[in-house]
Design goal:
mainly alpha; 415 residues; 17 helices; 80% helix
């Protein structure tokens, strides 16, 4: 029988390897969805926007269903692994898109990207709850900062190799993308294998609960509600610019697959060198306080991007953006776990992701609408302004959490 410390080390090791495989899958597929859609399939701006937003609205319905399913699960690992596998199967479908009639290719690809998020949302929801049960509160900042750093290095190396390889192909040639989709599926199988190697603690499911639990009890907990409001506002400002970056880089700056890879690598280098720093700052100052800084830092990216189409300049901008992306990813997830209750963490995570999916559908569409209403420069500046404003919103949340901490501390002392 392994000791608790040995089980923890085993789970952390397999979590990192599982995460590396997952990162390679994303680097080989998601990073090049927009380039494949525009360069090979001839997708319109509206279709590019749907690539960002359609998965979110499908994910919203998946989260509602996933919450009900997870409330009755005794083992999350099996459900998570199955969900990941079915998600990766969609990559096989993307391989065959090019063999459809020309007029249907772009729409079928958009549909596959969207539907892929049905099992993908199940996987994300169950994994977040699953890993939250395995990693203790005291280990979160240290472990996840190190895990994210390793994953980002894996993604950087993969992306750089892909960028170099794409230089040998014409940007309208579908073959390299088809190869990437097949290789991504293979790494998806590896991802599932290492997920199944985790040792999951048994938990009892109360048999008297005959009804599905849709997680509405999460809205009775004030810290979660306030974080939800702040998180949704920031994510709206963040995701509003996602399709705008793709459109600007590919249609305005005329980036090739090689340069898309280079700016992605630059962003990942920025993340790698800053992950541990954000983890230390979160331990010292709290997740809530540091989120205010990351939000303001994220506000610089859209504004700086539109100042030039020079590739070296855009590479530098993406590097500086990466310094704050790492903090955003780490702090948002840690703060979410912090405002959830352990006994029904899945309900909190599900409700957060459901609302996030709604924002994820609306925000990219608003970004594309602003683009057509004005210009890419105006739309990007609006995104920067909203991101900066979200920093102030997070600051108010930090003050609320600080007040709650001292109130609870006084109550404990009195008892």
């Amino acid at each position: 029988m392994q000791s608790p410390s040995e089980i923890t080390k085993w789970n952390e090791k397999n979590s990192i390897i599982n995460g590396v495989a997952s990162t390679i899958v994303m680097s080989m597929s998601n990073n090049y969805f927009a380039l494949f859609a525009i360069g090979v399939l001839g997708a319109t701006n509206y279709q590019v926007g749907l690539i960002s937003s359609l998965p979110q609205i499908i994910g919203m319905f998946a989260m509602i269903l996933g919450t009900a399913i997870m409330s009755r699960l005794q083992e999350k690992k099996k459900f998570t692994g199955q969900s990941i596998f079915f998600t990766r199967l969609f990559l096989i479908g993307m391989f065959f898109v090019i063999y459809l009639p020309v007029e249907y290719r772009a729409w079928m690809f958009v549909l596959l990207v969207g539907l892929m998020n049905l099992p993908g949302s199940f996987a994300m929801l169950s994994w977040q709850s699953f890993i939250g049960d395995l990693v203790s509160d005291s280990r979160r900042s240290g472990f996840f900062s190190e895990r994210n750093r390793v994953l980002t290095i894996a993604g950087m190396i993969t992306t750089l190799m892909i960028g170099i390889a794409l230089k040998w192909f014409d940007k309208v040639n579908p073959l390299p993308y088809q190869i990437l989709f097949l290789m991504a599926f293979a790494f998806g199988v590896v991802e599932v294998f290492y997920l199944n190697r985790h040792i999951e603690p048994q938990r009892e499911v109360k048999t008297e609960k005959s009804k599905f639990n849709f997680g509405w009890d999460a809205y009775k907990y004030k810290p979660f509600i306030y974080f939800l409001i702040c998180g949704l506002f920031f994510n709206f400002a963040w995701q509003l610019a996602w399709p705008l970056f793709n459109i600007y880089n590919i249609k305005v700056a005329h980036m090739t697959g090689f340069w898309i890879s280079i700016i992605t690598v630059a962003n990942q280098i920025g993340q790698i060198i800053s992950f541990k720093w954000w983890g230390r700052m979160a331990d010292k100052h709290s997740n809530a306080k540091m989120l205010a800084f990351t939000a303001v830092g994220m506000a610089t990216a859209p504004f700086l991007t539109i100042l030039s189409t020079n590739m070296y300049y855009l590479t530098f901008v993406n590097f500086t953006s990466g310094l704050f992306v790492s903090g955003t990813v780490l702090l948002l997830f840690n703060q979410l776990l912090e405002v959830t209750r352990e006994e029904n963490r899945g309900s909190f995570i599900a409700q957060y992701n459901i609302m996030l999916a709604i924002i994820g559908f609306i925000a990219p569409q608003v970004g594309v609408y602003l683009l057509h209403l004005s210009s890419v420069e105006t739309a990007m500046n609006i995104a920067s302004g909203l991101r900066a404003l979200s920093g102030g919103v997070f600051l108010f949340f930090f003050l609320y959490m600080k007040k709650q901490y001292f109130t609870n501390k006084i109550a404990v002392q009195r008892t």
